[in-house]
UniProtKB/TrEMBL annotation:
PANTHER family: EF HAND DOMAIN FAMILY A1,A2-RELATED, OS04G0502900 PROTEIN. Keywords: Calcium, Membrane, Mitochondrion, Mitochondrion inner membrane, Repeat, Transit peptide. This is EF-hand domain-containing protein. PROSITE patterns: EF_HAND_1, EF_HAND_2. One of its GO terms (molecular function) is calcium ion binding. It comes from Brachypodium distachyon (Purple false brome). Pfam families: EF-hand_8 (PF13833).
Length: 91
């Protein structure tokens, strides 16, 4: 959950926070379009902030929808070796 430490307000990430957080924690650069897609998928209450709870709920919904663990599939930038926080979040 290290990426959420970059949220400036109550540990929540804004679109502005996400790009540098992903760069620092995962070593990847996110385009503005990718950030828009991430927020479209994960920001369920549409408040412009991404909480760890919203992220976890979205990952759990995805796992339930495909009936297999998300971690066994390639998840693009989330599959980065430097993103060691993701497996801990799902467990």
């Amino acid at each position: 959950m290290a990426i959420f430490a970059y949220g400036k307000v109550n540990g929540m990430l804004t679109k502005h926070d996400l790009t540098p957080a992903a760069q620092h924690v995962c070593g990847v650069e996110l385009s503005d379009r990718v950030v828009e897609v991430i927020f479209h998928v994960f920001d369920t209450n549409e408040d412009g902030n991404l909480s760890s709870e919203e992220f976890l709920r979205a990952v759990q919904r995805r796992e339930n929808n495909i009936h297999q663990p998300t971690m066994r599939r390639s998840v693009g930038w989330l599959n980065s070796k430097r993103c060691s926080w993701l497996p801990q979040m799902i467990l």
